Structure formats: structure tokens, C-alpha cells
Amino acid sequence: MSAPDHAELWKTPLPSLFAALGSSPEGLAADEAAARLARYGRNDVVALRRPPLWRRFAAQIGNPLVLLLLIASALAAALGEVSSFVLVAAIVLLSISVDLVQERRAEQAIDALQRSVAVRAEVLRGGTRVAVPVDLVVPGDVVHLAAGDLAPADCRLVEARDLFANQALLTGESFPVEKRVCELPEAADPSEAANTLFMGSSVLTGSGLALVCRTGRATFLARMAGTLAERAPADAFQLGMRAFGMLMLRVTLFLVLFVLLVHLAFERPWLQSLMFALALAVGLTPELLPAIVTVTLARGAVRLARRKVVVKRLPAMHNLGAMDVLCTDKTGTLTEAKIRLVRHLDHRGEDSESVLRLAWLNSHFESGIRSPLDEAILAHAGMDAGRWRKLDEAPFDFERRRVSVLLAEDARRLLVVKGAPEDVLRVADRYEDKGEVRPLDEAARARIEALFRRLGDEGYRVLAIAFRDVPPDHESAALDDETELVFAGYAVFLDPPKEDAGAAIAALAAAGVGIKVLTGDNERVARHICGALGLSAARLVTGDELRRLSDEALLARVDEIDVFVRVTPQQKHRVLLALKRRGRRVGFLGDGINDAAALHAADVGISVDGAADVAKEAADVILLAHDLGVVREAVLEGRRTVRNVTKYVLMGTSSNFGNMVSMAGAALFLPFLPMLPVQVLLNNLLYDCSELGIPFDRVEAEALAEPVQWDLAEIVRSMLILGPISSAFDFLTFFALLRLFDAAAPLFQTGWFVESLATQTLVIFAIRSRGGILASRPHPLLVALALGAAAAAALLPLSPLGVWFGFVAPPPALYLFIAATVAAYLVVVAAARPLVYRRRGSRG
């Protein structure tokens, strides 16, 4: 058994394909599917594969700075300093292990969350339909496909019913393509393969069964992409992290070269000078940054999972925190999404069984996108289709906003149309009045439109129902048939506002997140719902008005518009792009097939667990409960995450950066190294360990009150303001060690090691809160690790291990001096903190 090549997918007769794949229309047995999974591998062509742990460990060891340091220490060992080499190697390996273990645990937590909302495919296993994750689909599986599904692999159609697909990812064409069961021995190009669905395609309308032929890396999508891991473009947070990394790299290179040149100019031992310079570089490099970022983002994602919010892509945590406007449809978000058909009215506003019958027939035979309105119609009355049978269908689209089914009963042919009232009335020229068909004159049209407006003002959703008899030889439904229709009446639905939606909107507004409603409903229904929830609808724009606005005009007005009604998917996308051009951080909440483009365009796409596959795949965040209240929780968690990542960076750019600058400055006047290379590395290891509690730290409410964005300017201010303060206290310590304690090299190195590590680790308590040291209680883990690292630095010189690192036991007076210096340092940093943080009211 072997999978066919790409051309054979559509050229080979279907029975031959089944035989080649060792399958049947009943699908595969469960044990055979498991065996094929082991043979072909997971169906994950577009998934990002993480390298194994050993390869990541090797990549860390292969870091040029670390590698040079190990080589230099090995040269020292060859010259007799074996203990130095052993200590350097041990500290480097321990630092890398701490980094990798933390990052790995965070990634495993995120993987578990993502699997919980993974897109699933319905496959036949032994003739029984079962749902499996898409990455477990194997060649030979028979999959069921319906509107909204993604093609899980390269598949050959076995059955198809009015099936239209979007394959823009492969061909670049956004128009729906009809797919059918047929033989195409001459077709040469995938775009001509009407009998084949390729991975990356999505089903727009209809349903079918398909034989899976090629999966994962063997699919046409994988060959076309030329890569097995397609990375998403970097967002603002990732770009900010890179900018910070480049800033630190430039500073590190400058200081290392400065130190090395000074030591060589003073004719100090070149090997020791090189090791010291490299150790300094390792100390300055924020090597724990990736782990801290991953752990912090993962910690936030796990907390959100407890609130029924699953984050699919970790960088979305930052975008949630930065979001200042949320665009949403009203159905299910502002309303209960428990839609009921409450009335079926003729043109006079009287109940009509004929209208109900026509609406039921349309919804019953429709095979495209089945909306909640269709479900409400079908649930309202358990009717029987009788002798009616379906001949054809003109599927719903978001430009026409109507769907037509062509039905046959004996010799009669009837086209039944259902859709938005404005778009159905536009193509109607008659109306039904108690069984008689009359011309739709101006008076009748005005009466029918007034009824529609009154229903909208009362908050009802309305569909217009129309029909048209066609000749007996009419066998297909075309868009041109939707003319000269007979208006039958209205199907009237109730979808009441959510009781808690008003409070959730107010809470989001208080948190600095505005709500804009983008809906396909008419303006009267939208105004009614918004009014019931206390949401402004004073500035409202219709889809027709939006179509007449140029991009420049929309850009000028988009901020002031509250509600967009009767908008198409393309117009939603256009509104989002305009908001982004205005500098807004935009979230979009959607769950339909038509929402995929908007979800992609938003800074953070939000969908729900029951959404269409294409919407779930496009989203960054999945809500397990369709509730605006959990969106607010997600926003606050995103802000908390960004604040905690910022704490790590501020910690590194204040005391740690200042201490390393002091180390470089000391080279100008000290006849010895201010710290031994192994002491610098130990300092860095203990400092890194003290930071592992940051992802768990608390953030005060004031810091979560407004949107938060990554702010590199704030980091630079910290470096320029808090870094020199740290260096000033370091030089004060240098003076005391040399003048008050008459310290030789070992005591100087010991004393400064203790003082520098205390300032580096304890500064977190002065900078972690924008309201002062006592504004909020730090997390117990952060307290334990920070105090533990400072205590370890103080006690190590007094222990037998101290000799290994070149320490000597300091006198008690030196400990008292260091304690007073650290306390004064923290007071000064706390006083200078407002110069670093922007005042409340500005972004960041």
C-alpha cells in the first residue's frame, strides 16, 4: 500500500484509489489507523515542531559567549587551574538546565491547553463516525465534511452534496469552487481538480465524504509551501523583545571590549582577562529572558484556562493586555443566542401557516451554512416534507444575503427564497394575500416595510420569505432566478439581550476597552439591543454607507462610530484594518465561517469552542463560554503577564546592568579583578534563580486599570536612571572596601560579591509595584527566592564551599555596612521609580 502522488489524486479512478490505499467506503479499523499513524506520522504540516531537549541544550552550549568562556577555562585548566574550569563548567551547565527545565514545563502546559481545543475531524472507523484530532487522520481514512470544516488532508471526494469550497490558500482565488464526484483523467493542474479537496481548503456550503490520500508533509500544501514550519509574522511584543535583546547585545559588546582592552593595556594576564571579560558578557546577557517570557506567558495562559479561556498562541497574551477596542457581533455575545421563532406573519402582520411552511421547506432542504435561525425554524414545527424533493440550491452568500432552494412536487417546480428583508424585497414584485397573488405596488411595499421597521424597533430579528413558480422543465437554481418573487411574509425571531452583558460591557469600558458592534442585522434591531444594554448606538453606519466611504474617510471616522450594521465579512475586515491604522490594538470576537478574515486581521482573534473550524483555526484565543465577562478576565490576565515580564527586564536593566558597568569601571583603577570569573558566573546563576518567582508575582489593580503595551522607552529610562544609581552605590562600596576595610583582592571580591548580589536581587521589591514598596504584597515564592539568593551570597563566604570560589570570611562590620548600603539603595530606587514609569493615563 502506498499513497498516490499528487497528480494521481484526481486522475486515478476512485475504486483504484481505495485499492491502492487498502481502504473501503466503511473507512479503516481502529488498529489499522493506529498502525498507519506510526508509519506515516502525525498530520501536522503547519504545526511548529519544537526541537528535542538535547538539541536545545546543545544550542545553548553553542552560544558563542558560553563556548568561548568554556574554551578559555579549559585553557586555564591546561595551565594548572583545574578547579576553576570545573566550577565554570558546572555553573554554566546548571544555568542552562534551570533555563531549559522551566521553559520545557511551560511549553508542556501550553501544549495540553492547545490540544483541548484542537480542530477535530469526523472519520469513519469500521463504518462508525467518530471525531478525532486532525493530526491523527491517516491515509485511507474516510472523512465527513460539512460547511465550516477544514479539509484535514489531501482528499478525493466519495460523495458530495452541493459542496463549494474556498481554496484561496492554494490558488490565491477567493471565489467559491464547486467540488463534485467525477473522473478527471485529463486534468493537469490542482485548480482543475474538481473531485479533490486539498489540505488548507475550507468547505463553504454543502457536505460530503472524502477519502484521505496524503497527509502531513506529503500534502500538496507542504510541497507548495516549501517548509514544514510556517512561522507567523512577529507581533509588537516579539519585536519589542528583539529590540531589547539587540540593545543589550550592543551594550554588552561595548563593555566587554572596553574591559578587555583596559586589562591588556595594563599588561594583566591575558587568559584571566579574557575569562573575566567573557564572564562579564554572560552576566550582562539576559539569557533567562526566553524562559521568563515563556513561563510568564504560560502561567497566565494556565490561569485563564481555569476561567474557561484557552490561549492558542502565547504572544496573544500581550495583545490581550494591549487591546483597547473589541469588535464583536451581537449574537451570542450581547444576546442569549437562544433564538426562538416566535411568529410567522403575512403582509398584514397576521399569523400565517403558509409563511411557516415555506420557511420550513427552505431550511429543511438547505445544505449550506445552517444558521441558528434555521435551527429555530426547524425546531418550531415538526413538519413533513411530504412529496417535496430538492432539485437544486443557490447557496447563501454575504453579498446577496439570501438562499434559494428549487423544489419539485409532482409536476410543480417551486423556488423558495429566504433572506434579509431588504435584499428579498428588492427582487420581489408581487405579494401573497390570503392565497391570492397581487402586484407589489407602492402602498403595499410601504406597509410591508413599515411592519419590518416596527418589528426591528421591538428588538425582533426578521427574515423575509418569498417564492416563485418556475416552468416544469426547470432543473437548476441560478442567481438569475431570484427575480419577480412573490413576497409571502416574515419569520420573526426573538434573541433577548444577555442579563449580564451590560455589566460586562461596563467593566470592559472601566478597564479602557471600548466595544464596537459589527453585525449583519439591521439598524433597528441593533439599536434596540444596544439600548437595552446601555451601549451607545448614536453613531451608527450601515453597510451601504460604509461602501460609499473611501479608505481615507473611514480612517477619519472609524474611531467615533459605535455600531456597524448590515456589514459583509469584507467590510468587517476593512473596519479592523482602519482601526489598526489609527493605532488601536484591536480584538475581534467571532465564530462563523465569514469571520475568519477578520480574526486573522485583528491583533487578537477570539472565537468560541463551538465555532466553525475555520474560525477556531484563525483565532488566537478560544472561549469555552461565550461570555464577555471572561473576555475582561482575559484582558486583565494579559496585562498582568506583560507587567511581570517587564519586572524581569527592569530588574536586569537597573541593578544588574549597573553592577556590570561598575565592574567594567573598576578595571580602570584596581590592580586586580573586581571579581573572579567564576564569581561573576556564580553571581549570575544566583541572580537568575531569584527571578524564577516573577511569573507568579501579584500585580496591583492600578497597574491593570488601562491597556498595557511593551514599552522599550521605559526600559531605556530604567537603564539610564536606575543603572547609574546602582553604579553609584557600587562605587561607594568600592571606596569603603579599600579605605575603611583596607581590603586586599580576596576580601574586596568577597565583599562586593555579597553587596552586588543583594542589590541585584532585592531591587525587585522596589520596582515591582508602581504604587510603592508596600502597595501590594509580593508572591511568597518571589520573596523566598529573592531573599534566598541574597542569603546564599552572604553565607557562602562563611562556608567551606567559599574557598572553592576564592572567597574569604568578611568581618561582621562589613556585613553591617553592606546591609545599610542595600537599604539605602532600595530607598533611593523607590524614590526614583516615578521617573521611570509613565504616569497613569498613558499607554504602556
Keywords:
single chain; 844 residues; alpha/beta; eight-stranded mixed sheet; 30 helices; elongated; disordered C terminus
Overall pLDDT metric: 83
Share of residues in strands:
15-25%
* Quaternary: single chain
Spans of at least 5 consecutive residues whose pLDDT stays below 50 are 226-232, 840-844
Distance between the amino and carboxyl termini: 59 Å
The major beta sheet can be summarized as: 8 strands, mixed
Number of helices: 30
Shape: elongated
Helix content: 40-55%
Number of strands: 23
Strands in their spatial order, largest beta sheet: 8-23-22-21-9-18-20-19
Structural class of the secondary structure composition? alpha/beta
Compute the CA-based radius of gyration.
34 Å
Your description of this structure?
The structure is a single chain. The protein is built from 30 helices and 23 strands. The protein is elongated. Helix 23 links the parallel strand 22 and strand 23. The chain is of the alpha/beta class and 844 residues long. An 8-stranded mixed beta sheet has the order 8-23-22-21-9-18-20-19, with helices on both faces. Strands 10, 11, 12, 13, 14, 15, 16 and 17 form an 8-stranded mixed beta sheet that branches. 49% of the residues lie in helices and 16% in strands. The C terminus is likely disordered.
